[in-house]
Design a protein that fits this description.
The protein is mainly α and 168 residues long. It has a domain of 100 residues. The chain contains 6 helices and no strands. The longest helix is centred in the C-terminal third of the chain and has 31 residues. The chain is extended, with a radius of gyration of 29 Å. The chain starts with 15 loop residues before the first helix and ends in a 17-residue tail after the last helix.
Length: 168
């Protein structure tokens, strides 16, 4: 006679690959939950109940330009590089190389920083001139529309809430 007390056989755990898959799924779920919780923790007190500061005037002017003008400005800012990101990466690599150089020369670091600052200044000058050229050719009505767009939060590409809530 067999002793079957109605208890299931506990020795049968199933295929090993199923257990591995379940452990991997659990680990992935915990990683995603951890990332979401970490992001929420970092962001929750970012501005401590205050509205974020407005963007710089350069950002506001840049985003107020039409798409073609912005594209042209970015191409001119990139210079010899295929795009502005490649230029920024080249600047970073140049800075890292000068910081790691043996012997270290602070003048070399200063030259890298000065070159980047000069390109940034030239870009802002081109931006300023392009924006002024556009504004100079506008009618009163077009300038009024531009002003309305500028008053809106540019972080939403001029589709956000009005920054000056009480003004019209």
């Amino acid at each position: 006679m067999s002793q079957d007390n109605g208890k299931p056989n506990m020795n049968s755990k199933g295929p090993r690959w199923v257990r591995i898959l379940l452990v991997m799924s659990l680990a992935l779920n915990l990683a995603v939950i951890g990332m979401l919780a970490g992001t929420a923790y970092r962001v929750k007190d970012r501005w401590a109940g205050k509205p974020p500061p407005p963007p710089s005037l350069s950002v506001t002017l840049y985003r107020a330009l039409d798409r073609e003008t912005r594209h042209t400005l970015m191409q001119s800012a990139a210079g010899d590089h295929p795009n502005i990101r490649a230029l920024r990466e080249a600047d970073r690599k140049a800075l890292f190389a000068t910081l790691q150089a043996d012997p270290f020369e602070v003048e070399a670091v200063a030259r890298v920083l000065e070159g980047q600052a000069q390109r940034q200044y030239q870009f802002r000058e081109k931006l300023r001139q392009s924006w002024l050229d556009q504004v100079a050719g506008m009618s009163e009505e077009e300038r009024a529309k531009l002003l309305e767009r500028l008053r809106r939060d540019p972080r939403g590409h001029f589709k956000g809430k009005d920054r000056q809530k009480g003004s019209n």
